[in-house]
User: Fold this.
Amino acid sequence: MHNKTIAELSQGLQQKQFSSFELTEHFLNRIQQHNDKLNAFVTVTGELALAQAKGADARIASGQSNALTGVPIAQKDIFCTQGVRTSCGSKMLDNFIAPYNATVVEHFNKTGAVMLGKLNMDEFAMGSSNETSYYGPVKNPWDLGTVPGGSSGGSAAAVASRIAPGATGTDTGGSIRQPAAFCGITGLKPTYGLVSRWGMIAFASSLDQGGPMARTAEDCALMLQTMAGFDEKDSTSVNRPVDDFSATLNNSLAGLRIGLPKEFFGEGLDPEIAKLIHQAIAEYEKLGATVKEISLPNMNLSAPAYYVVAPAECSSNLARFDGVRYGYRCENPKDLHDLYTRSRGEGFGAEVKRRILIGTYVLSAGYYDAYYLKAQKIRRLISDDFKQAFQEVDVLMGPTSPSVAFRFGEKSADPIAMYLSDIYTIALNLAGLPGMSIPVGFSKNLPVGMQIIGNYFSESHLLNVAHQYQQVTDWHHKAPAEFCDEKR
Amino acid sequence: MQWETVIGLEVHAQLATRSKIFSAAATAYGAEPNTQACTIDLGMPGVLPVLNAEAVRMAVKFGLAINARVASRSVFARKNYFYPDLPKGYQISQYDLPVVGKGKLNILVDGEVKTVGVTRAHLEEDAGKSLHEDFHGLTGIDLNRAGTPLLEIVSEPDMRSAKEAVAYLKKLHALVRYLEICDGNMQEGSFRCDANVSVRPKGQQEFGTRAEIKNLNSFRFVEKAINFEVERQIELIENGGKVVQETRLYDSVKDETRSMRSKEEANDYRYFPDPDLLPLEITADFIAEVHTSLPELPDAKRDRFKTHYGLGDYDATVLTATRELADYFEAVVAEAGADAKLSANWVMGDLSGALNKAGLEIEQSPVEASRLAGLVRRINDETISGKIAKQVFEALWESKDSADDIIEKQGLKQITDTGAIESIIDQIIANNPEQLAQYRSGKDKLFGFFVGQAMKATQGKANPQQLNDLLKAKLQA
Assistant:
């Protein structure tokens, strides 16, 4: 059962080939069997999942089901779940049980999906390798000595190892796309404002966006259908009708205009990855697409701008974790200052502290204009670059990451090297654009992801573009042997 | 040396919305601690603010009332600092782009009109409260107030005395209550004031170094604190010292200000636009719609009281000081059907005096406008004299009876029957031949004696004018 996609599982449930209860038990067994090696789940909600599965079976029996009714999925531990610990990968929230559900979680509950548990992640979503989690790193199912990517590393590893059919992720600078690429799955970062941020613990509010991670574009479409939509509780959520993401999956790609940003193929890109991307592009040409080189001249400014804006917002967003009302509090504080400094000093990990410090610095009196304001201007330039590009082409394609999954410890001592692993993904967050990563082959026995970038609210088109490729290739069906007995 | 005082005020007016500025929690005052704080007010992880449209409407109302430009686009910013009663670790406020721009208020000081500039007014959320008294060795945090909408109104440094500052503050206080955007309750902290005070040698252009005085929760304290601070600064400079820029706290028990924190200790608030909230965009249509909902404002009302009721400047100013007083007066005039001046005299005179003595506001008056109007009506139609009216007023205050019932029950109706008055006069003249002779020989002062006797005989009910006229005629006959 674990080799089936969400679409196949949905069909099996509707046709009563198996019950949601059986399906859920199966995945809970797989989690029990494999999670120790992977460390993908930080909390498994077995009892809750089985109870939800029973409810889903009743719904299916009464004919009141939706596509995801009874399908088990897992939530990144950044989404608040009522009555279930929401740790955000941090010691700070190790004891935090949210009294409310994130809107995304609420949507999955309403549709009758089953939640298997909460997935490991970089602490407060700050990291590209999952090494910053308080709960220890997630392992890449393709090679347990390499990182799964981050910050949604638990989500990517769970889906790739088939211990969960689908998972939610969040993407602030590449946190869905880069782990999707490293683990050989499909991930979509939606347009900023498409998916509600209510109950999604904020890292950098103007960049954060939740999205689906699954094996196929078709599955991502089903999940996104559940996740997307205007939410009056999120002022930045966009009030517009939600597309039917599955409806256009089979549209022809004849005449599709693909742009290849030359800045994505320059120095620093692993040549084997470049080769695989070009092979994938060739497939698209076979499907009727035309290809054109374009330029995003301000691409080189995206990393510097990102590492001003994201830490600035994070320094403020994380101020609420002060040991006063919830979360970690130090032992025997002497006074208020001691309570603050030790609770935060002991509760946050090194990477989180580094970003809080950077953010505090760039917002300080006398530095604000030089850093924060300038970074915001660069954001505009980057958006304009994309706007220009989308006058000429329909989608942009390029590598998701300059390298395949790296080994544990390889970059954790060098923050800059680590930050550069997101070099191709962060520009989209600065511009608020949607992007996907789909598997397009292997290099050094590790998966390679290709990024597809679309214009604002073009998710259904992106999913169509990805799906058509997946109809003529089978990279998305490859599974790590250690976790999958069958080929498919 | 001659010194000049320079004062600017920052007022925090709590907006009278039912729910908070960024959440649906109630704003009612006085609830059990932490019962009116939802997940947003508590700053829980993952929660997001949504702006209360009513708070925006109120801010726009204020902007229009002071003839300010209402910004078509304003921005909410985060003011970052750590404090236990600030749950998010930042306050959502407005910084470089406030919703209300430059405006002005006219104040009346010593009979002269002066214009005070309002620099800006912006929306922000209030913090919670730290309670140090009730918990030995601990601090209690009550977050009921966290997220309550505030309009911070910043004046230009246009005031030159404590008296002017108080006049401005009272004018502002009246205005926000006229607009029904703030209940103005200073004890409960709904209307709070900080004063920026500096002194400079008279004639000097540049401002002196200012101190900001906090914790001024009554008009009287504002006046006393400013006066203390001005003297402190002058004395300091005259003794060769220097005023330092700092925040000072007013202690009303000791009647002094003392240093709270210096500029060096001041926080760097690291303001930046709140990414959780979109810029606030206000359309011309919305402004026009709010404009039509504006009530008559104090200055317009004062002018109308002068032209419509024929009142003098003083009366019109006093009667329009608060919307409640003005409404009360208009209700009296409408029902009394009498000369407005007579109603004005009773509202400003006996009624205000009695209210002051009892420490009551006009809206708490035991004498309702309709019952006072009943009294004025009877004075006007000469059923009772002005003197008897005071007696009736006391009865109005003590009971729920109408003026007519009181006059009837106590038999206070004025005697206007000429024949009846004449016969009483005849009797008195007959009983007092000696005084009559003295009066007729030129001792005019004795006229009062005869009036007194007649009033005594009628228990004060004789129509005074008639009595005078008839008495004069009889005595000279």
